[in-house]
């Protein structure tokens, strides 16, 4: 019987594929499932592999993490990493066809090993994509006896849960505006002609700041954003839309761009430098603003 099936791992076969099926015909989910089957009862997918399966990241990793009880010791396999943990470290996984850690545990695991900015970005993305809620993340963080990013994540999650500001606004204020000593933007400015309340603005130069994570918007939402930007432009306002990568991965370039637009429209102020700033160079603002 096994000669009619595609072998994935020692003793693990895929009944949907013929033996001659090429490697690229095996899906990422099938490979992950094979690792869980090989590891035995209680094993689940974790790490970046679970993040991909749950929709937190878009690209599958080269190595699939399989989390299993400490007493198990499966033989090493190429393309897999078996992580043995003691009982009680993780919350009980939700029932799924392909067992994975809960998204909260996945986020906290990845944030623990990631650089500071990447850790913030993972939390932001998980909440923005509505995979979890800040309160659930905070509860799981409190249940962990150790976490290297505890203070950072507690402050971030408290800001989000309180509703006073968003994680993207916090990142922009800290990493872009304050770190580079930009002129303080005015928060929650209403444009009378449209009734729209912007996240921030420079009224003297008529520049609007939209910190709404448009990278994750649907096509319909992008169209509405474009129509709103056009309506503001008619009223003399220029809109700068700022997304998560622009704050958490490109803060210095974003600060230079905001200042360039602000000054090009008659605004005042000077750009400061943060410790991460590259050597100074001109910022080109093409066309008439």
Largest sheet, if any? 4 strands, mixed
Helix-strand topology string = EEHEHEEHHHHHEEEEEHEHH
Put simply, the count of helices is: 10
How large is the share of residues in beta strands? 5-15%
Count of domain modules: 3
Mean pLDDT: 86
Which class do the helix and strand fractions yield?
A: alpha+beta
- The best one-word shape is elongated
Share in helix: 25-40%
Q: Which stretches are poorly predicted, pLDDT < 50 over at least 5 residues? A: 284-289
Radius of gyration: 24 Å
Strands in their spatial order, largest beta sheet: 6-9-10-11
Distance between the termini: 70 Å
Got a strand count? 11
Protein name: DUF559 domain-containing protein
Transmembrane segments: 36-57
Keywords: Membrane, Transmembrane, Transmembrane helix
Describe the model.
The chain is α+β, with helices and mostly antiparallel strands and 289 residues long. The chain contains ten helices and eleven strands. The protein has three domains: 101 residues, no CATH class; 63 residues, no CATH class; 83 residues, 3-Layer(aba) Sandwich (Endonuclease, Chain A), CATH 3.40.960. Strands 6-9-10-11 form a four-stranded mixed β-sheet, sandwiched between helices. A three-stranded mixed β-sheet has the order 3-4-5. The chain has a two-stranded antiparallel ribbon with strand order 1-2. A hairpin with a 4-residue loop joins strand 9 and strand 10. The C terminus is likely disordered. Keywords: Membrane, Transmembrane, Transmembrane helix. This is DUF559 domain-containing protein. It comes from Arsenicicoccus cauae.
